[in-house]
């Protein structure tokens, strides 16, 4: 269980590589990563959007497949090619009238460290690096790309009374 008042969470921000996709990825002939996605993570993301949580993606990756996948699930804030995630995060907060304590961020590696040090509820997958685990309030029992996003979204929605509470929960 996440040791945080999850009723305060208005936004959940995810990294992609190592969080929404597995840490090890294949590559195509041009050297572009072929990321995996977890269907249960996808279900939870689209449900969170429907239930009013603001979901955002901040990634260093720049694959159009990322944009298409998460836009399909209803995510509007998709920040790709983010070399300095802290700057993108500050912009995201300002544009959405959010405070740090209203944000859960899930990251897995050093590029996520600065943002995770700011948010109210830093979380990570089971296979995150040691430095990220050390600053996380919650380490999921699931690895990146294997349900860690579903884990935190489900906990937030349950805490807010929005998990399986009406017909929106039972469809895509």
From TrEMBL:
Its cofactor is Mg(2+). Belongs to the KdsC family. GO terms for molecular function: hydrolase activity, acting on ester bonds; metal ion binding; N-acylneuraminate cytidylyltransferase activity. It comes from Hallella mizrahii. Gene3D superfamilies: HAD superfamily/HAD-like. Keywords: Hydrolase, Magnesium, Metal-binding. Homotetramer. SUPFAM superfamilies: HAD-like. This is 3-deoxy-D-manno-octulosonate 8-phosphate phosphatase. Mg(2+) binds at residues 15, 108. Substrate binds at residue 17.
